[in-house]
């Protein structure tokens, strides 16, 4: 947010919206200087500037465009197609001080590079003026841009005068015809297409918001492989390259520009700049993106409101009359397409849906899942059907919870929401991903649905996950490190056709009692699936079309061994997957996800580190630390693992703990020639020694560019806490250590010290292995703690008894002090009851007064909190009716006299 640019000390301008592409004309400076120094200042100091992580700085490509004084204007070409006809407008600028006559030539070039039609017109342009030249060209039988065959053409606009070329501009586009029909949704080239979409933010986990080109392409293609055909750019424009890639791979885009038309985060664009800048930013955005065939619909807001919605739609239509406009439940009365976020997940939503417009579920559905984590009991964010009639009933998979290991002890949670969520598609707000898939497929007027989200993202961890150390929103089908979750394969089984099978959960359960029935699910595109346990068939099943039959399920008594799923089409085996019970971790395996490093120049590669046992079977609880080092002209760009609670630094890190058996390394070439290899080393073993006290040390070398090196590797280690040296014990094989031991190791490469490793094995390290009675509750509705809220003039205390959470807030003797909670409402506007829990008394009056505001509007300027018996030991509640808006809400209690009651928590009912 708030970039200011200077050239040779001259201020060129300021743009407050960090998601907008922009340009400055520096021609006058170039005419008078031998060199140009560009300075850019980004001011993102006031935080939070959005409700999620934005990054700060220059996060995408920047370039200098050199043009003639007579040239095609920046983003000045607009291409539309209808059938075989191309309509093109070219805006030409004359920056000289005399009128000019130019020839404007337009050539259409097909995907093979052949010019298929050309047209030329003459144009008169006034001095220091601009003029639009319009063209209509016919192309015989053009190849269509479609999801599976995204053929791209180019329109080349050339300006010439007296036979001399002055300027040219190339614009890619596609021939595609789109219709929107209220009863059936979107039609692409005469075919009814459901928008099988996801919402995605800009960041890519450990890489932050400055996502390298190759990784951005990988992530989009990853979603395509899942069966996704549409992305909503939540809640801001993406980088120009994003749209180029979507054009190339056949990915549809709901292009969204704004989160709010007013304040939603404390220091966001909506608060400070929207009113003055929205027209400029929206105009620049549409001019930039309107030629992309992947962009099929504009979205102008998310869970916000205001009469300005009508103006936004009008300007969109003026700049691009070919695409409809929608929003995420914002100013819906003015939108061409009715978009609704989480409210569209409610039971009975489609029973009362009007049919006057196309409908899209702009955020549907909301489920949470942590890769590698399982629970058989259903979890609802806001309570199940017994307390919330709008949610779908999702039966528990077992009467008692089967899985009890966790990331932290129950007593150590900083907030009741700090739980991991199950990968069985049974942790949700209102519904399952399977319900949504069924509705989208079977309801004709349900045009499209965009789940929240495709990939996990950094930020918004307090609202759902209770705050630090949670740093990420875990709703993705893919985690922060680009590792696919089980949910990815559910979508793949329903949205793709190629033969596949996927088994969940893994088959390593050291703390589950023998013969306990475990729900084993198989997702498959095949017509029939057979499951084998240690070679013995457990029977065949056919995946169904109803939500609760999309997975094949067997209740398998737990015993160590091998599970194999075989998928059949027409009685022939076409796909299979085998998983085995893993022993204790003993090795790491290195591999590359996506494209390898290019043969020369700067590039980046994704390395997968898998924790395995001695046989090479993945150990699904792997959490040992891997140390990374590069040989050759490369370096570690960032490290990650997909964990939502790993708070170590990512950028230029040297080591990373594994998360459920996987670690991610991003290695980049620095541009110099030469072979590049990655050396990864790890001290392996069960941190809590739940089945084994054995320790292994493993070093692996992976060639990333050129020939694989074959270095001489020696390892020396200690178990007494001292630093190892070549005189320490040489590692020749596994060894045993008692709990409480820190193992340190020195890796020598070609006789020289290369890496130093460490790992601690103790009862207080790693995952928590609970008894069955210690399993967290399945449903976690309830309160918002005051100590987790935004405070001004108040302090957190924990003296006394009976308070909830880890404390309460004390206003002291301050007047005007406040506590403010943030509340996200992904449903409709609703009337609710605010319950305030407090303690304290006034020595002379029956209570103390406080001001209650919701969304900066005063609800009660003097709300009486009646006295309790004493301070900090006796707690009461008061109830106040309030109105909760869509999207972001703030609830503030402000002292109106010297001090106020202790505030423990609020809840909304």
UniProtKB/TrEMBL annotation:
One Gene Ontology biological process: carbohydrate metabolic process
Keywords carried by this UniProt record: Glycosidase, Hydrolase
Domain CBM6: 781-909
Top-level taxon of origin: Bacteria
PROSITE patterns hit by this protein: CBM6, GLYCOSYL_HYDROL_F2_2
An annotated Gene Ontology molecular function: carbohydrate binding
Recorded family membership: Belongs to the glycosyl hydrolase 2 family.
Record protein name field: Glycosyl hydrolase family 2, sugar binding domain protein
Pfam families: CHB_HEX_C_1, DUF4982, Glyco_hydro2_C5, Glyco_hydro_2, Glyco_hydro_2_C
Organism expressing this protein natively: Rhodopirellula maiorica SM1
Gene3D superfamilies per the UniProt record, alphabetical: Galactose-binding domain-like, Glycosidases, Immunoglobulins
């Amino acid at each position: 947010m708030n970039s200011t640019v200077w050239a040779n000390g001259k201020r060129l301008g300021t743009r407050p919206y960090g998601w907008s592409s922009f340009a400055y004309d520096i021609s006058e400076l170039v005419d008078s200087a031998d060199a140009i120094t560009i300075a850019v200042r980004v001011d993102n100091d006031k935080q939070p500037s959005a409700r999620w992580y934005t990054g700060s700085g220059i996060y995408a490509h920047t370039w200098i465009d050199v043009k003639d004084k007579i040239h095609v204007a920046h983003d000045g070409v607009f291409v539309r197609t209808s059938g075989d006809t191309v309509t093109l407008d070219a805006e030409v600028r004359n920056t000289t001080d005399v009128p000019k006559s130019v020839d404007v030539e337009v050539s259409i070039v097909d995907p093979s590079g052949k010019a298929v039609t050309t047209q030329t017109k003459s144009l008169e342009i006034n001095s220091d003026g601009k003029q639009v030249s319009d063209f209509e060209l016919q192309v015989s039988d053009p190849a269509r841009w479609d999801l599976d065959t995204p053929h791209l053409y180019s329109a080349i606009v050339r300006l010439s005068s007296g036979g001399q070329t002055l300027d040219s501009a190339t614009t890619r586009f596609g021939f595609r015809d789109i219709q929107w029909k209220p009863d059936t949704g979107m039609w692409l080239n005469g075919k009814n297409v459901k928008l099988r979409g996801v919402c995605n933010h800009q960041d890519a986990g450990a890489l932050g918001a400055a996502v390298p080109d190759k990784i951005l392409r990988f992530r989009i293609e990853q979603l395509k492989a899942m069966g996704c055909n549409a992305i909503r750019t939540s809640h801001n424009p993406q980088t120009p390259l994003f749209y180029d890639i979507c054009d190339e791979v056949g990915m549809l885009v709901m292009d969204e520009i704004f989160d709010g038309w007013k304040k939603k985060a404390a220091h966001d664009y909506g608060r400070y700049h929207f009113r003055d800048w929205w027209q400029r930013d929206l105009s620049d955005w549409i001019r930039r993106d309107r030629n992309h065939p992947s962009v099929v619909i504009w979205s102008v807001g998310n869970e916000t409101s205001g009469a300005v919605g009508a103006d936004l739609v009008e300007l969109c239509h003026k700049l691009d009359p070919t695409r409809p406009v929608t929003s995420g439940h914002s100013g819906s009365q003015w939108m061409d397409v009715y978009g609704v976020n989480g409210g569209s997940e409610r039971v009975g939503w489609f029973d009362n849906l009007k049919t006057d417009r196309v409908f899209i579920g702009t955020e549907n559905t909301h489920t949470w899942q942590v890769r590698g984590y399982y629970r058989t009991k259903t979890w609802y964010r806001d309570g199940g059907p017994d307390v919330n009639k709008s949610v779908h009933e999702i039966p528990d998979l077992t009467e008692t919870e089967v899985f009890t290991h966790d990331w932290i002890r129950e007593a150590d949670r900083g907030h009741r929401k700090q739980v991991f969520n199950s990968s069985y598609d049974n942790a949700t707000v209102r519904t399952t991903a399977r319900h949504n898939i069924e509705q989208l497929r079977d309801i004709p007027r349900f045009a499209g649905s965009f789940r929240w989200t495709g990939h996990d993202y950094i930020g918004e961890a307090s609202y759902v996950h209770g705050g630090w150390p949670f740093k990420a929103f875990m709703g993705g089908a893919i985690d922060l490190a680009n590792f696919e979750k089980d949910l990815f394969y559910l979508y793949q089984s329903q949205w793709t056709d190629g033969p596949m099978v996927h088994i969940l959960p893994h088959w390593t359960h050291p703390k589950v009692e023998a013969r306990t029935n475990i729900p084993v699910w198989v997702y498959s595109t095949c017509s029939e699936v057979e499951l084998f346990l240690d070679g013995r068939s457990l029977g065949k099943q056919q995946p169904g079309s109803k939500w609760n039959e999309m997975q094949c399920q067997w209740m398998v008594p737990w015993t160590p061994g091998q599970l194999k799923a075989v998928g059949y089409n027409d009685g022939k085996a076409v796909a299979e997957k085998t998983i085995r019970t893993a022993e204790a971790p003993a090795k790491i395996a290195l591999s590359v996800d996506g494209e390898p490093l290019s043969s020369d120049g700067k590039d980046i590669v994704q390395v997968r580190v898998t924790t395995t046992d001695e046989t090479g079977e993945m150990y699904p609880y792997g959490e040992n630390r891997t140390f990374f080092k590069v040989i050759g002209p490369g370096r570690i760009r960032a490290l990650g693992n997909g964990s939502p609670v790993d708070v170590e630094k990512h950028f230029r890190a040297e080591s990373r703990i594994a998360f459920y058996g996987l670690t991610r390394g991003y290695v980049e070439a620095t541009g110099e020639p030469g072979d590049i290899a990655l050396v990864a080393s790890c001290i392996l073993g069960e941190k809590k020694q739940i089945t084994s006290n054995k320790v292994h040390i493993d070093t692996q070398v992976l060639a990333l560019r050129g020939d694989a090196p074959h270095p001489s590797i020696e390892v020396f280690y200690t178990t007494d806490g001292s630093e190892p040296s070549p005189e320490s014990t040489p590692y020749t094989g596994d060894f045993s250590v008692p709990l409480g031991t820190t193992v340190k190791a020195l890796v020598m490469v070609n006789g020289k010290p290369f890496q130093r490793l460490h790992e601690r094995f103790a009862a207080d390290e790693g995952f928590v292995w609970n008894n069955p009675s210690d399993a967290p509750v399945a449903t976690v509705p309830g309160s918002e703690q005051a100590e987790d809220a935004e405070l001004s003039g108040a302090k957190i205390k924990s003296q006394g008894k009976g308070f909830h959470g880890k404390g309460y807030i004390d206003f002291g003797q301050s007047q005007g002090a406040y506590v403010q909670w943030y509340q996200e409402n992904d449903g409709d506007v609703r009337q609710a009851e605010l319950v305030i829990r407090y303690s304290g008394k006034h020595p002379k009056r029956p209570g103390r007064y406080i001001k209650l505001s919701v969304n900066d509007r005063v609800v009660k300027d003097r709300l009486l909190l009646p006295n309790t018996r004493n301070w900090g030991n006796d707690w009461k509640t008061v109830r106040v009716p309030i109105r909760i808006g869509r999207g972001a809400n703030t609830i503030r209690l402000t002292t109106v006299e010297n001090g106020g009651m202790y505030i423990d928590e609020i809840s909304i009912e």
